[in-house]
Specification:
- By secondary structure, the protein is an alpha+beta fold.
- It has one domain.
- A five-stranded antiparallel beta sheet has the order 4-3-2-1-5.
- The relative contact order is 0.23.
- Keywords: Signal.
Length: 132
């Protein structure tokens, strides 16, 4: 059973094109990426922004994602890349680099009960939020 879980974990990391800015100097790799992937999420905010040059963030003219806050206080934006719907197009970046056009739609308090990987696997869209 352990080897199957390890296989799934390795497969998930391999399939994801994860663009990640480090806590320190740039891209995460190896143990740092694994640490981020396994980190407990304490708060998650579902976000929307206009897609492309549109000024509207409604329906097909919007792009969605989720900003997660981890136990160390760091915040990460998880969203789909340009080819939305393709699992390998999930993107993770430091929230410091988010544009101001992202707007909070819902906030969920997860109290460390969900790992970051759950949000990465779904591009942030498949997680149930309890509103607060």
């Amino acid at each position: 059973m352990f080897s199957f879980k390890m296989f799934l974990f390795t497969l998930a990391l391999t399939l994801l094109v994860v663009t990640v800015q480090s806590w320190s100097d740039g891209d995460l790799s190896g143990p740092e990426l694994t640490r981020l992937y396994n980190s407990p999420v304490y708060e998650a905010e579902r976000l929307k922004r206009p897609k492309g040059s549109s000024s509207s963030a409604v329906g097909p003219f919007s792009h969605s994602g989720v900003r997660v806050t981890l136990d160390d206080g760091s915040q990460w934006l998880i969203h789909k890349g340009m080819k939305y719907g393709i699992s390998s197009q999930t993107v993770v970046t430091r929230a410091d680099y988010m544009s101001s056009s992202w707007k909070v739609v819902k906030i969920g308090n997860f109290q460390g009960g969900r790992p970051c990987r759950d949000f990465v696997r779904t591009g942030g869209s498949g997680i149930q939020f309890s509103l607060r």
